Amino acid sequence: xxxxxxxxxxxxxxxxxxxxxxxxxxxxxxxxxxxxxxxxxxxxxxxxxxxxxxxxxxxxxxxxxxxxxxxxxxxxxxxxxxxxxxxxxxxxxxxxxxxxxxxxxxxxxxxxxxxxxxxxxxxxxxxxxxxxxxxxxxxxxxxxxxxxxxxxxxxxxxxxxxxxxxxxxxxxxxxxxxxxxxxxxxxxxxxxxxxxxxx
Length: 199
Ligand SMILES: [Zn+2]
What we know:
It is an enzyme of class 3 (hydrolase). The protein is α/β, with parallel strands linked by helices.
């Protein structure tokens, strides 16, 4: 295997510049999985409240289900994402990108189903329908560049695109044009295919 041109960026699927908080919610990817998709999500717990630490607790099965009425509806949920970007643009990582995180559910994109098998999930702290903050776009673009230097990603889409009718995140408040401009500015990500515009 050829040496990576960025040997300090990744170690066994973990990005060195991210805060690492390992989640038990993952499994192996199928043999030969081509990791060519990044899935963008949004999440906040309780919904619309930021900086509570509850997302990190959810992804590590440490959320107190009785701490808020909303949690009754997700009690026992075991999910994860590879990454979580806070409102301030801080990047957390929960699952090695070499492994399969549990973020997409029933899904289909670029002619393939079960997107968890061969995608990298990125959660943005936010609420579907509302806006996201500039540091989040900058952190997302930088994260995409790092991913593009290690994995053969060619596609990026929202959860709403890969699970239409079932999921709405990151929603209409997410500025795909902003992301597109930032991805286009770097050779590593310039060729990534975004979801088709729906306007
Ligand atoms: Zn989602």
